[in-house]
Amino acid sequence: MNTALLLALTAGSLFLTGTRHPVSAQPLPEFRGICEVRSNLPGRLRLALPAIKSDPEQAQHVCQQLLSTGVVREATANPATASLLICYDASQVEAPLLMGAVIRLMGLDEQITRKERPRLEKQLHQLYMAVDRSVLDASGGWIDSRLLAGGALLAAAIRQGLTGGYALPGAVTLLWWASSIFRKGNEDT
């Protein structure tokens, strides 16, 4: 297949699927669920800010503050769509500066800088807590999952040591894991 035909097919498929590559002034950071860029054109910036729904008065205050700078021509907060539209003079101010001002004025900096645990880690922690509670209930409060795992490793290490000797890595590795589990438990209390 010749190159011209391949390019024509690619361009045609992009046209038919409606895929457009928006022209943006410059890339802006994304803060998922806190402050997301919906549109970034020179002189026009639309941000998605869920905080606008919960605090529309603060959003109006932010709009007034932005308008008072003299470089922002229009600032409109829409609580229904949780978005903020800013039209500004691109020759006097850059979009990242406006985005930073909005984040600061809305009081979102703490949310952005806070370290959030990944969802998978949260789900694994919930699973661990459920297993821990089950082991504790099944044993009548005598052991939890940490003691059960440590005890199983200790038993495996002793068995490995008696049958195959304390050769590396088997028994010694199991003893190390068992002792580290028990040490971790002592540090928590």
Write the layout of secondary structure elements.
Layout: H1 3-17, E1 36-41, E2 44-48, H2 51-54, H3 56-67, E3 72-78, E4 83-88, H4 95-106, H5 109-113, H6 119-138, H7 145-164, H8 170-188
Antiparallel strand pairs: 1-2, 2-4, 3-4
Helix pairs in contact: 3-4, 7-8
Structure description:
The chain has 189 residues and is α+β, with helices and mostly antiparallel strands. The chain folds into 2 domains: 25-113, 2-Layer Sandwich (Gyrase A, domain 2); 119-188, no CATH class. It is built from 8 helices and 4 strands; from the N terminus they run αββααββααααα. It has a 4-stranded antiparallel beta sheet with strand order 1-2-4-3, covered by helices on one side. Strand 1 and strand 2 (44-48) form a beta hairpin. The longest helix has 20 residues, at 119-138. The protein starts with a helix and ends with a helix. Residues 1-24 have low confidence and may be disordered.
Helix content: 55-70%
C-alpha Rg (nearest Å) = 29 Å
Count helical runs. Answer: 8
Q: In this structure, how is the largest beta sheet organized?
A: 4 strands, antiparallel
* CATH architecture field of the largest domain: 2-Layer Sandwich
Alpha carbon gap, first and last residue: 71 Å
Low-confidence stretches: 1-24
Structural class given helices, strands, pairing? alpha+beta
**How many separate domains make up the residues?**
2
Q: What's the shape?
A: elongated
Chain oligomer state: single chain
> How much of the residues is beta strand, in percent?
5-15%
CATH topology-level fold name of the largest domain:
Gyrase A, domain 2
Mean pLDDT: 80
Strand order of the largest sheet: 1-2-4-3
> Which CATH top level class of the largest domain fits?
Alpha Beta
Order of helices and strands: HEEHHEEHHHHH
Strands, total number = 4
